[in-house]
Design a protein that fits this description.
Blueprint (H helix, E strand, L loop, with lengths): L15 H6 L10 E7 L6 E3 L7 E3 L1 H13 L4 E6 L17 H12 L4 E6 L22 H17 L3 E4 L6 H11 L8 E6 L6 H7 L19 H13 L3 E5 L5 H11 L3 E5 L1 H12 L5 H14 L4 E4 L2 H8 L4
Parallel strand pairs: 1-3, 1-4, 1-10, 4-5, 5-6, 7-8, 8-9, 9-10
Antiparallel strand pairs: 2-3
Helix pairs in contact: 2-3, 3-4, 4-5, 7-8, 9-10
The structure holds ligand PBG.
Length: 328
Protein backbone atom coordinates (compact mmCIF):
# COMPACT_ATOMS: atom_id res chain seq x y z
CA UNK A 1 0.00 0.00 0.00
CA UNK A 2 1.38 3.31 -0.98
CA UNK A 3 0.46 6.12 1.41
CA UNK A 4 -1.66 8.91 -0.05
CA UNK A 5 0.48 11.57 -1.67
CA UNK A 6 -1.00 14.28 0.48
CA UNK A 7 -3.26 14.84 3.42
CA UNK A 8 -6.91 14.08 2.69
CA UNK A 9 -8.93 16.06 5.17
CA UNK A 10 -12.18 15.52 3.33
CA UNK A 11 -12.28 11.79 4.21
CA UNK A 12 -13.19 12.80 7.74
CA UNK A 13 -15.83 15.32 6.71
CA UNK A 14 -18.08 13.16 4.55
CA UNK A 15 -20.96 12.48 6.91
CA UNK A 16 -22.32 13.96 10.12
CA UNK A 17 -21.45 10.72 11.93
CA UNK A 18 -17.79 10.93 11.04
CA UNK A 19 -17.64 14.66 11.68
CA UNK A 20 -19.12 14.04 15.09
CA UNK A 21 -16.57 11.30 15.78
CA UNK A 22 -13.58 13.58 15.22
CA UNK A 23 -15.04 16.80 16.60
CA UNK A 24 -12.59 18.45 18.99
CA UNK A 25 -14.75 20.98 20.79
CA UNK A 26 -18.17 20.72 22.38
CA UNK A 27 -20.67 23.39 23.26
CA UNK A 28 -23.53 22.55 25.55
CA UNK A 29 -25.84 24.27 28.06
CA UNK A 30 -23.69 22.92 30.90
CA UNK A 31 -20.86 25.20 29.73
CA UNK A 32 -23.03 28.30 29.80
CA UNK A 33 -24.15 30.97 32.26
CA UNK A 34 -27.09 33.26 31.42
CA UNK A 35 -27.03 36.87 32.66
CA UNK A 36 -30.30 38.13 34.21
CA UNK A 37 -31.21 41.76 34.92
CA UNK A 38 -33.42 42.20 37.96
CA UNK A 39 -35.41 45.21 39.05
CA UNK A 40 -37.66 45.74 42.11
CA UNK A 41 -41.39 45.02 41.85
CA UNK A 42 -43.68 42.20 40.81
CA UNK A 43 -44.75 40.84 37.45
CA UNK A 44 -42.36 43.13 35.58
CA UNK A 45 -40.90 42.28 32.18
CA UNK A 46 -39.30 45.16 30.30
CA UNK A 47 -37.59 44.32 27.01
CA UNK A 48 -34.11 45.79 26.57
CA UNK A 49 -34.24 47.57 23.21
CA UNK A 50 -30.63 47.00 22.24
CA UNK A 51 -30.65 43.30 23.22
CA UNK A 52 -33.48 41.36 21.55
CA UNK A 53 -34.66 38.49 23.75
CA UNK A 54 -33.28 40.07 26.95
CA UNK A 55 -35.57 41.63 29.56
CA UNK A 56 -35.30 43.39 32.88
CA UNK A 57 -37.51 41.42 35.24
CA UNK A 58 -38.72 41.58 38.80
CA UNK A 59 -37.48 38.81 41.14
CA UNK A 60 -40.64 36.66 40.73
CA UNK A 61 -40.23 36.70 36.94
CA UNK A 62 -36.48 36.09 37.27
CA UNK A 63 -37.40 32.96 39.19
CA UNK A 64 -39.53 31.78 36.26
CA UNK A 65 -36.68 32.36 33.86
CA UNK A 66 -34.24 30.63 36.17
CA UNK A 67 -36.57 27.63 36.48
CA UNK A 68 -36.61 27.21 32.73
CA UNK A 69 -32.83 27.58 32.52
CA UNK A 70 -32.32 24.97 35.23
CA UNK A 71 -34.68 22.60 33.45
CA UNK A 72 -32.76 23.09 30.18
CA UNK A 73 -29.47 22.22 31.86
CA UNK A 74 -27.89 25.69 31.73
CA UNK A 75 -25.19 25.69 34.41
CA UNK A 76 -26.13 28.92 36.09
CA UNK A 77 -27.17 32.54 36.02
CA UNK A 78 -25.28 35.75 36.78
CA UNK A 79 -27.41 38.47 38.34
CA UNK A 80 -27.24 42.20 37.64
CA UNK A 81 -29.36 44.60 39.66
CA UNK A 82 -31.16 47.77 38.71
CA UNK A 83 -31.73 49.31 42.15
CA UNK A 84 -34.59 51.58 43.22
CA UNK A 85 -32.20 54.42 43.97
CA UNK A 86 -28.54 55.30 43.60
CA UNK A 87 -26.12 57.29 45.72
CA UNK A 88 -22.54 58.46 45.74
CA UNK A 89 -21.22 55.34 47.49
CA UNK A 90 -23.40 52.76 45.77
CA UNK A 91 -24.89 51.57 49.06
CA UNK A 92 -27.58 49.55 47.25
CA UNK A 93 -24.81 47.12 46.27
CA UNK A 94 -24.44 45.71 49.78
CA UNK A 95 -27.88 46.44 51.28
CA UNK A 96 -29.35 43.40 52.97
CA UNK A 97 -32.69 44.10 51.28
CA UNK A 98 -31.07 45.14 47.99
CA UNK A 99 -32.39 43.87 44.69
CA UNK A 100 -29.65 41.25 44.24
CA UNK A 101 -29.89 40.01 47.82
CA UNK A 102 -33.68 39.70 47.61
CA UNK A 103 -33.49 37.83 44.32
CA UNK A 104 -30.73 35.54 45.57
CA UNK A 105 -32.71 34.45 48.61
CA UNK A 106 -35.67 33.56 46.40
CA UNK A 107 -33.64 31.69 43.78
CA UNK A 108 -31.46 29.88 46.33
CA UNK A 109 -34.56 28.62 48.13
CA UNK A 110 -36.41 27.47 45.02
CA UNK A 111 -33.54 26.25 42.83
CA UNK A 112 -30.76 24.86 45.02
CA UNK A 113 -29.06 23.12 42.07
CA UNK A 114 -28.72 26.17 39.86
CA UNK A 115 -25.42 27.99 40.15
CA UNK A 116 -26.05 31.56 41.34
CA UNK A 117 -23.25 33.88 40.33
CA UNK A 118 -23.19 37.54 41.34
CA UNK A 119 -21.39 40.45 39.72
CA UNK A 120 -19.56 42.36 42.45
CA UNK A 121 -19.29 45.98 41.36
CA UNK A 122 -20.64 49.39 42.31
CA UNK A 123 -21.40 50.95 38.92
CA UNK A 124 -25.08 49.99 38.83
CA UNK A 125 -25.53 51.52 42.30
CA UNK A 126 -23.53 54.76 42.16
CA UNK A 127 -25.22 57.95 40.98
CA UNK A 128 -22.09 58.82 38.98
CA UNK A 129 -21.97 55.39 37.31
CA UNK A 130 -18.33 54.60 38.10
CA UNK A 131 -17.19 51.28 39.57
CA UNK A 132 -15.74 52.79 42.78
CA UNK A 133 -15.68 55.77 45.12
CA UNK A 134 -14.76 59.11 43.57
CA UNK A 135 -12.22 61.63 44.80
CA UNK A 136 -13.09 65.34 44.70
CA UNK A 137 -11.38 65.65 41.32
CA UNK A 138 -13.59 62.88 39.90
CA UNK A 139 -11.05 60.04 39.88
CA UNK A 140 -11.93 56.54 41.05
CA UNK A 141 -10.20 55.82 44.36
CA UNK A 142 -8.79 52.32 44.61
CA UNK A 143 -8.21 51.38 48.23
CA UNK A 144 -11.30 52.93 49.85
CA UNK A 145 -13.40 51.06 47.28
CA UNK A 146 -12.05 47.66 48.35
CA UNK A 147 -13.93 47.61 51.63
CA UNK A 148 -17.24 48.33 49.86
CA UNK A 149 -16.64 45.56 47.33
CA UNK A 150 -15.83 43.15 50.15
CA UNK A 151 -19.06 44.12 51.95
CA UNK A 152 -20.98 43.58 48.73
CA UNK A 153 -19.49 40.12 48.19
CA UNK A 154 -20.24 39.07 51.78
CA UNK A 155 -23.84 40.29 51.48
CA UNK A 156 -24.20 38.19 48.33
CA UNK A 157 -22.78 35.10 50.03
CA UNK A 158 -25.14 35.57 52.98
CA UNK A 159 -28.10 35.73 50.60
CA UNK A 160 -27.11 32.52 48.83
CA UNK A 161 -24.59 33.31 46.08
CA UNK A 162 -22.70 30.22 44.90
CA UNK A 163 -19.90 32.21 43.22
CA UNK A 164 -18.96 35.87 43.51
CA UNK A 165 -17.48 37.58 40.46
CA UNK A 166 -15.77 40.95 41.00
CA UNK A 167 -15.89 43.03 37.79
CA UNK A 168 -14.72 46.43 39.06
CA UNK A 169 -11.00 46.13 38.14
CA UNK A 170 -9.73 47.76 41.35
CA UNK A 171 -6.28 46.47 42.35
CA UNK A 172 -6.31 44.16 45.35
CA UNK A 173 -10.03 43.45 45.32
CA UNK A 174 -9.70 39.67 45.14
CA UNK A 175 -7.61 39.58 48.32
CA UNK A 176 -10.02 41.95 50.08
CA UNK A 177 -13.03 39.86 49.08
CA UNK A 178 -11.35 36.54 49.94
CA UNK A 179 -10.41 37.82 53.39
CA UNK A 180 -13.89 39.15 54.10
CA UNK A 181 -15.62 35.97 52.91
CA UNK A 182 -13.33 33.79 55.02
CA UNK A 183 -13.86 35.98 58.10
CA UNK A 184 -17.59 35.71 57.68
CA UNK A 185 -17.65 31.92 57.40
CA UNK A 186 -17.85 31.68 53.60
CA UNK A 187 -14.52 29.98 52.91
CA UNK A 188 -16.30 27.62 50.51
CA UNK A 189 -17.61 30.35 48.20
CA UNK A 190 -15.33 30.59 45.13
CA UNK A 191 -14.21 33.83 43.49
CA UNK A 192 -14.50 34.12 39.72
CA UNK A 193 -12.43 37.17 38.94
CA UNK A 194 -12.99 39.31 35.86
CA UNK A 195 -9.20 39.31 35.65
CA UNK A 196 -8.64 40.55 32.11
CA UNK A 197 -11.45 43.00 31.58
CA UNK A 198 -10.90 45.49 28.78
CA UNK A 199 -12.25 49.03 28.37
CA UNK A 200 -14.52 47.99 25.50
CA UNK A 201 -17.08 49.57 23.21
CA UNK A 202 -18.88 46.22 23.24
CA UNK A 203 -20.44 46.95 26.67
CA UNK A 204 -22.78 49.56 25.16
CA UNK A 205 -26.06 47.61 25.24
CA UNK A 206 -25.37 46.37 28.79
CA UNK A 207 -25.08 49.92 30.03
CA UNK A 208 -28.54 50.59 28.56
CA UNK A 209 -29.91 47.49 30.25
CA UNK A 210 -28.28 48.11 33.61
CA UNK A 211 -28.43 51.90 33.44
CA UNK A 212 -24.74 52.13 34.35
CA UNK A 213 -23.16 54.51 31.84
CA UNK A 214 -20.65 56.74 33.66
CA UNK A 215 -22.07 60.26 34.05
CA UNK A 216 -18.66 61.71 33.13
CA UNK A 217 -15.50 60.27 31.63
CA UNK A 218 -15.02 56.60 30.87
CA UNK A 219 -13.55 53.48 32.47
CA UNK A 220 -10.11 53.57 30.85
CA UNK A 221 -8.49 54.51 34.16
CA UNK A 222 -9.29 51.07 35.57
CA UNK A 223 -10.31 48.70 32.76
CA UNK A 224 -7.56 47.37 30.50
CA UNK A 225 -6.22 48.90 27.31
CA UNK A 226 -7.37 46.75 24.34
CA UNK A 227 -3.84 46.89 22.93
CA UNK A 228 -2.31 44.88 25.78
CA UNK A 229 -1.78 41.14 26.03
CA UNK A 230 1.22 40.68 28.38
CA UNK A 231 -0.58 42.85 30.88
CA UNK A 232 -3.53 40.45 30.85
CA UNK A 233 -1.22 37.67 32.01
CA UNK A 234 0.06 39.89 34.82
CA UNK A 235 -3.53 40.67 35.86
CA UNK A 236 -4.42 36.99 35.93
CA UNK A 237 -1.27 36.09 37.88
CA UNK A 238 -2.03 38.80 40.45
CA UNK A 239 -5.63 37.67 40.91
CA UNK A 240 -4.58 34.04 41.33
CA UNK A 241 -2.01 35.07 43.91
CA UNK A 242 -4.74 36.94 45.77
CA UNK A 243 -6.94 33.84 45.84
CA UNK A 244 -9.08 33.80 42.69
CA UNK A 245 -10.40 30.29 41.99
CA UNK A 246 -11.37 30.99 38.39
CA UNK A 247 -10.67 33.84 36.02
CA UNK A 248 -12.48 35.45 33.15
CA UNK A 249 -11.54 37.23 29.95
CA UNK A 250 -13.97 39.91 28.79
CA UNK A 251 -15.12 40.60 26.08
CA UNK A 252 -14.66 37.28 24.28
CA UNK A 253 -14.44 37.38 20.48
CA UNK A 254 -12.06 40.34 20.12
CA UNK A 255 -9.83 38.76 22.80
CA UNK A 256 -9.62 35.07 21.80
CA UNK A 257 -5.82 35.35 21.72
CA UNK A 258 -5.84 36.45 25.36
CA UNK A 259 -8.11 33.56 26.27
CA UNK A 260 -5.77 31.03 24.66
CA UNK A 261 -2.72 32.52 26.36
CA UNK A 262 -4.40 32.57 29.78
CA UNK A 263 -5.50 28.95 29.44
CA UNK A 264 -2.08 27.78 28.22
CA UNK A 265 -0.10 29.79 30.77
CA UNK A 266 -2.07 29.00 33.91
CA UNK A 267 -4.11 25.87 33.16
CA UNK A 268 -6.83 27.00 35.52
CA UNK A 269 -10.63 27.16 35.10
CA UNK A 270 -11.10 29.96 32.62
CA UNK A 271 -14.29 31.67 31.55
CA UNK A 272 -15.13 34.20 28.89
CA UNK A 273 -17.83 36.84 28.86
CA UNK A 274 -19.50 37.03 25.47
CA UNK A 275 -20.72 40.53 26.16
CA UNK A 276 -23.82 42.51 25.26
CA UNK A 277 -22.40 44.16 22.14
CA UNK A 278 -21.15 40.86 20.74
CA UNK A 279 -24.63 39.39 21.17
CA UNK A 280 -26.43 42.48 19.86
CA UNK A 281 -24.23 42.73 16.75
CA UNK A 282 -25.13 39.22 15.60
CA UNK A 283 -28.83 39.73 16.28
CA UNK A 284 -28.84 43.07 14.47
CA UNK A 285 -27.29 41.50 11.37
CA UNK A 286 -29.78 38.64 11.61
CA UNK A 287 -32.67 41.09 11.74
CA UNK A 288 -31.38 42.76 8.60
CA UNK A 289 -31.36 39.36 6.90
CA UNK A 290 -27.60 39.60 6.48
CA UNK A 291 -26.70 36.35 8.18
CA UNK A 292 -28.27 33.39 9.96
CA UNK A 293 -28.26 34.53 13.58
CA UNK A 294 -28.57 31.10 15.21
CA UNK A 295 -25.71 29.65 13.22
CA UNK A 296 -23.52 32.71 13.68
CA UNK A 297 -24.16 32.65 17.43
CA UNK A 298 -23.27 28.95 17.69
CA UNK A 299 -20.11 29.53 15.68
CA UNK A 300 -19.10 32.47 17.86
CA UNK A 301 -19.65 30.51 21.08
CA UNK A 302 -17.84 27.47 19.71
CA UNK A 303 -14.84 29.63 18.82
CA UNK A 304 -14.73 30.89 22.38
CA UNK A 305 -14.67 27.33 23.70
CA UNK A 306 -12.05 26.36 21.11
CA UNK A 307 -9.85 29.26 22.20
CA UNK A 308 -9.74 27.82 25.70
CA UNK A 309 -12.83 28.86 27.63
CA UNK A 310 -14.17 26.20 29.96
CA UNK A 311 -17.37 28.18 30.32
CA UNK A 312 -19.06 31.18 28.74
CA UNK A 313 -21.29 33.89 30.12
CA UNK A 314 -23.67 34.68 27.28
CA UNK A 315 -27.09 36.20 26.64
CA UNK A 316 -27.57 33.41 24.08
CA UNK A 317 -27.48 30.60 26.69
CA UNK A 318 -31.24 30.20 26.91
CA UNK A 319 -31.81 30.09 23.16
CA UNK A 320 -29.00 27.63 22.62
CA UNK A 321 -30.37 25.39 25.37
CA UNK A 322 -33.87 25.62 23.89
CA UNK A 323 -32.50 24.57 20.51
CA UNK A 324 -30.62 21.65 22.05
CA UNK A 325 -33.82 20.54 23.77
CA UNK A 326 -35.77 20.88 20.51
CA UNK A 327 -37.97 23.56 22.09
CA UNK A 328 -37.54 26.03 19.22
C1 LIG B 1 -20.02 45.98 35.69
C2 LIG B 1 -20.16 45.16 34.45
C3 LIG B 1 -20.25 45.56 33.11
C4 LIG B 1 -20.45 44.40 32.36
C5 LIG B 1 -20.44 43.34 33.25
N1 LIG B 1 -20.24 43.83 34.53
C6 LIG B 1 -20.27 46.92 32.52
C7 LIG B 1 -19.04 47.69 32.43
O1 LIG B 1 -17.97 47.32 32.90
O2 LIG B 1 -19.16 48.80 31.91
C8 LIG B 1 -20.65 44.35 30.87
C9 LIG B 1 -21.32 43.12 30.38
C10 LIG B 1 -21.84 43.20 28.99
O3 LIG B 1 -21.58 44.14 28.21
O4 LIG B 1 -22.56 42.27 28.63
N2 LIG B 1 -18.83 46.65 35.85
Amino acid sequence: MTPPPFHRGRRLRRTEAIRSLVRETTLSPGNLIQPLFVTPGKGIRQPVGSMPGVERTSPDEALRDAEELAELGVAGVILFGIPEGKDERGSGAWADDGIIQTTLRLLARELPELLLVTDVCLCEYTDHGHCGLLSTDGRVRNDPTLDLLARTAVSHARAGAGIVAPSDMMDGRVAAIRGALDDDGFAEVPILSYAAKYASAFYGPFRDAADSTPAHGDRRGYQMDPANADEALREVAADLEEGADMVMVKPALPYLDILRQVKDTFGIPTGAYHVSGEYAAILAAHRQGWLDGDRAMEEALLSIRRAGADFILTYAARDLARRRAGNI
